[in-house]
Each structure stands twice: as C-alpha cells, then as structure tokens.
Design a protein that fits this description.
Layout lengths: L7 H19 L4 E2 L1 H10 L15 E5 L26 H8 L3 E6 L19 E2 L2 E5 L5 H8 L13
Parallel strand pairs: 2-3
Antiparallel strand pairs: 1-3, 4-5
Length: about 160
C-alpha cells in the first residue's frame, strides 16, 4: 500500500472474497460495510508527510463493541440489533485518521461479557482451526477473523 503496488480498493475486494469463502464457517464478521469502505478508499488522500504508523488504506475490522459512523452497532445484544452508529468511537475514529478503512465488525458476546463470542443475533464464532471449538471471547470474532485470513488487522479489547 505504501509503495502503491496494491490499492486500498483492491484489498477491499480481497477481503470481500475471503469473507465469502469462510464467513459461513467461522461466523467471525457478521457485519460488513463494503460500500462505506469503497467510498472511503475513493476519498483517501495520501498525506505528503504521513505520521508514523500511517496505514495507507489498509482494510480493518472493528470489534462490534465500538461504534463506526453509519454502520450497524449491536454489541451482541437483541436490544441493539438494528442500531446504527451516528458517529464513530475513538478507536475507529483514530484508525480512520491514520489511514485505515473499516470493512466490517467482528462478533462479540452480549455486551462483551463472556468468554465465548456468542449472542442471540449472530451464530457462535468458532476457531478456523477446529470448527467444533470456540474462538473464545470477548474478542473471539476478531481472533477468528485474523486466524481465517479475513483481514490484516482487527481490533480487540480487554474490557468490552
């Protein structure tokens, strides 16, 4: 990305294809926002002096405990099953400021309270290494997404 060998749009396409291949097996990324991601890629302006750690349009997945403007934000709870975030939380906002492009949200237990990523909205997240076993929680969706090569970066957290 930094050298322009691939574009953010090309990598968004790679993520979308990979999700089509594995998501029905692992249930790691139940919420996607590819139209939003493509719009962000089209608007991405490469800074003349990028700060250290700039991501150059790298597609990322955000844990569903974090709001992303215009994207469904359930926190794994039926109460918020249809909620859409009005604005992004600090984690998503900072990643986007640093050149990340959000392509989806990863599965969590309800309100991130649990050691497995299951809830009443989405199927239980499993590990791609053994589909009979849990990917853990509360960042199990992020872990399974990375382990199944759905994306190159996914957020997780320790306390929700």
């Amino acid at each position: 990305l930094k050298d322009g060998v691939v574009t953010p749009s090309e990598l968004i396409d790679v993520v979308e294809r990979r999700l089509a291949e594995v998501e029905d097996l692992v249930h790691a990324t139940p919420i996607t926002c590819f139209d939003r991601a493509r719009a962000a890629a089209a608007k991405l302006q490469r800074p003349s002096s990028p700060p250290p750690g700039y991501l150059y349009g790298l597609p990322v997945l955000i844990k569903d405990s974090v709001p992303v403007a215009g994207v469904r934000w359930t926190e794994g709870s039926k109460i918020f099953e249809h909620r859409v975030a009005k604005e992004s939380g600090p984690t998503a906002k900072r990643l986007e400021e640093m050149g990340a492009i959000v392509v989806g949200k990863t599965n969590v237990p309800e309100f991130c309270a649990g050691s497995q990523s299951f809830n009443e909205i989405f199927p239980t997240t499993v590990t791609p290494w053994d589909l009979r076993t849990t990917a853990g929680g509360s960042s199990g969706g992020a872990a399974a997404a990375l382990a199944s090569c759905q994306c190159w970066l996914a957020t997780g957290s320790d306390l929700g």
